[in-house]
Structure formats: C-alpha cells, structure tokens
Design a protein that fits this description.
Blueprint (H helix, E strand, L loop, with lengths): L5 H11 L4 E5 L4 H16 L3 E5 L21 H10 L42 H13 L5 H4 L12 H6 L4 H14 L2 H26 L21 H9 L5 H13 L4 H14 L4 H11 L6 H11 L42 E2 L4 E2 L2
Parallel strand pairs: 1-2
Antiparallel strand pairs: 3-4
Helix pairs in contact: 1-2, 3-8, 7-8, 10-11, 11-13, 12-13
Amino acid sequence: MRSGSPAEELVKLALESEAQTIYFNQNYGPYDVQIEQHIRQTARSAGIEVRAFKDTLILAPEEVLHQAGKPFRVFTACAKAWHQHAKAKPLPALRQITTPAAIKSEPIPTLDHWELMPEANVLQPGEKAAGHRLKRFLRGAIFEYAAQRNQPSLEATSRLSQDFRFGTLSPREVYAACHETARICTPAERRGVNTFVNELVWREFYFQILWHFPNVLDENFSPQFSTLQWDYDSAQFRRWCEGTTGFPIVDAGMRELNTTGFMHNRVRMIVAMFLTKDLHIHWRGGRKLFYAKASRRRHPGQQRGLAMVRGVQAQTQHLTSEFRIPGHKRRPAIRKATTSKDGFRSSKMSTLFDLHNHRPRN
C-alpha cells in the first residue's frame, strides 16, 4: 500500500522490487486515461515496460464500431454488434502472490486518515462478499429480473454495481456466469437472464460513449440543448437533496441514497426528472450529489441516468417525462424534433438476443 502520485509511486515500487514490467487493467474515463498516460511516460523514462489489459469491460470501445469505423450513438445498433463478437472467458485466479520481504507497505487507510465520517450503511465490501452477491442473484432473483426489475419495492436487482465500479467483480466473470446459468435454466427463466445481460451491454455502451465522447461528463451530448435556461432555488435544491420535497417516491429515493449509498435505477430516473423537469435545476447539481453519495460514484451509468431524463443523451428522441407521479401536474416539456442525421435513429430498449442460442429475438 502506497500513497502519492500513482505514476511516481508505481515506478518507485517497481525499482525497489526490481520489476521489469508494470501490468494494469485499463480504464476509460478521462481522469483514468490521464493517469495511465502519466504512468507510461514515467515508466518509460525509468526503463520499465508497461502493459495494459482489458478487464473493466468485456469488449473495449475500439472493438465495437460501425463498419465505417465510427462509434455507435444508438444502443440498439451497438448491442447487435456487441453480441456478434466473441467473448473471452475469465482466467483462473492466482492462488498466491508473494511480496518480497524488503518491500515496505503503508497501513490500509481508514476514514480517519482522510478525516471523513461514515455517512451510509453500505454493503459488505470486498471480492468475497461480491462473489456471494453474484451467486445469490444467480440462484434466484435473476429468473424474475425481466418482470420485477422495475419495481423499487422488491429486492429484484443484482446490487452488483459497486462491485463493477471498484473491481471486486469482473464483468467478464459475471457474463460467463450468466451464460452458464442460461444454459441450464428453463426458457422462461432464461428471459430474466437475457434481460440482465442486456443491462451489462448498456454498461458497455455508456463506457463507449465516455471513451469516444469524453465531453459528456460536463456537456450535453446534443449541442442543441446547450442554450437551455435553468432555474436555481437553493431551498428547493436542498429539499431535493435531503428528501423532503413532499413527493413520497422522490423523498424515499433520496433518503435511501443518503442512508445506504444506493438508489434503484427507476427511482434514480424519477428523482433526476423531478430535479430537471419540475424544479428546472441544472443536471450538474444532481450529478455532484450522486458523485458524493452513491456507492457506484463516477460511473458512466450514473451519467446515463441523468442524461436520459434530461433528454440530452445518446439515443434521445424527445425531452419528455417517462414517469409520472400520480396527482402531480408537471410543467410543459421541451420537445426535440425527431432526427435521423448521420443515420442515427432513436429506438426502444429491448432484450435483443437470446444468450443461450445466440440468435436475435423475434
């Protein structure tokens, strides 16, 4: 365990251990790319080889492209291409890694080290706990995933998002486990497995968007929305953050986030739409809160949720509310004309492929 500049500390550790090569799994966010470039430059100057591998994603962004070599902007077309690629199988885990006795290590930091206080009752961390969550999901909830995943009151989701985020589970490992589950389950149960795999593809799609269009972290994906005028009421924003708006589903979601670091995907859409389309507060304010509170913070899927409801993401046709709060009269929506520029059209989300038979679904 070392603290400091990633590039400097890694190279220093490599020199201390007389290592000739630094290996790491590649990430795809702008900050990650910047760090990895710094590592390569620093290691090269010290005469150390650097080798990066693919593990954050099942397929790297450069592997899934249009025939013309351009990135996809619509999920449906991207998913079709994604399913046509061969998927590498997980490698066996190393049984033992020996650290030279002379290598010094700092203690594992605690919250006190950063002068932080615990704010949420988070899930059990670590690779072992992540494996248990995956096994439990594959034994039960995944078979009803297609029918129940949109019900926030049910424990019908995988709860694996933070494990993907922090690397305690590999998406390749999860995909392989789903493939095996689909092989032995009934056709009715397989529908749930296929739907969950579709969510893995959504995750890959938004990593691709982040890689090819890194400006989406701070800008609207569609430039025509950049001139939208936003309101800001600090009292309303504070009540949204605290979960005291008076709208039960919104408040329940925000309080769950503040208490556990987790919020159901459909509730994330509701609270984000309430912020942007009812309070007319800029999506960046909501993103900042989710980055601070969510256990899967700084994940493209988080950006996806905010983008989807504000109507400025890839594959957007109308800037309209997809969810309605009973009894609530929303403000008039701003609409965007349907467009097919460059051949990119909006299309509905669907389970595209049968994982077992590897054929498009009818």
